[in-house]
Amino acid sequence: MTNNYFESEEFSKIDFTKRKIKKGEYDNCTFINCNFENVHASNIQFVECEFVDCNFSNAIVNNTAFKEVNFINCKMIGVKFNECDSFLLQFSFKDCQLSFSSFYQLKVQNIKFVNCNLQEVDFTETNLTNTVFDNCDFKGAIFGETNLEKSDFRTSFQFNINPENNRLKGAKFGKDNVVGLLSKYKIVVA
């Protein structure tokens, strides 16, 4: 099987549920308004790519590489990022719907999540050192043995993080959302 190579190409309004995505490496490509819902996007390399207004919900990303990839206004419900190729894994998310996705045991420091819905997302045993969570909704998100050192939660909300089983040294929280660190203790903050 030959590996395809695509460089600096733009893919617009492609429904990959109807037209199979070609395996290979996509370098510096842009995907706009494409549908990857439930698509097997395994063993593909995305390097310095941008996905805008795409639907990735329940896409299968086994051994898929995301190296310096930006997702903007994408629907990504139920994506198991923990099954990606973790080598040089680096991505950012802006205005994305990531509910029910999993980052379980990933080492993904220095990520940016801006205006994202992170409800019910699994961050168990994830290394998120130095990550920025700007205006993100964490309702029902799971944190356990998670490294959140030097991460910024100041503008985020609805998180429930137990300081006793997560690493929080140097993490930033706002006065209005610090209650998310106390819920375990059943304390009423008025």
Secondary-structure blueprint:
Blueprint: E1 4-7, E2 10-12, E3 24-27, E4 30-32, E5 45-47, E6 50-52, E7 65-72, E8 90-94, E9 112-114, E10 132-134
Parallel strand pairs: 1-3, 2-4, 3-5, 4-6, 5-7, 6-7, 7-8, 8-9, 9-10
Written overview of the protein:
With 190 residues, the chain is mainly beta. It has two domains: 1-98, E3 ubiquitin-protein ligase SopA (Pectate Lyase C-like), CATH 2.160.20; 103-183, Pectate Lyase C-like. The protein has strands spanning 4-7, 10-12, 24-27, 30-32, 45-47, 50-52, 65-72, 90-94, 112-114, 132-134. Strands 1, 2, 3, 4, 5, 6, 7, 8, 9 and 10 form a ten-stranded parallel beta sheet that branches.
Structural class: mainly beta
What's the CATH topology name of the largest domain? Pectate Lyase C-like
Terminal residue distance: 63 Å
How many strands appear in the DSSP assignment? 10
- Specify Rg, calculated over alpha carbons: 17 Å
Q: Summary?
A:
The chain has no helices and ten strands.
Give descriptors for this structure.
10-stranded parallel β-sheet, single chain, Pectate Lyase C-like, 190 residues, 10 strands, mainly beta, elongated
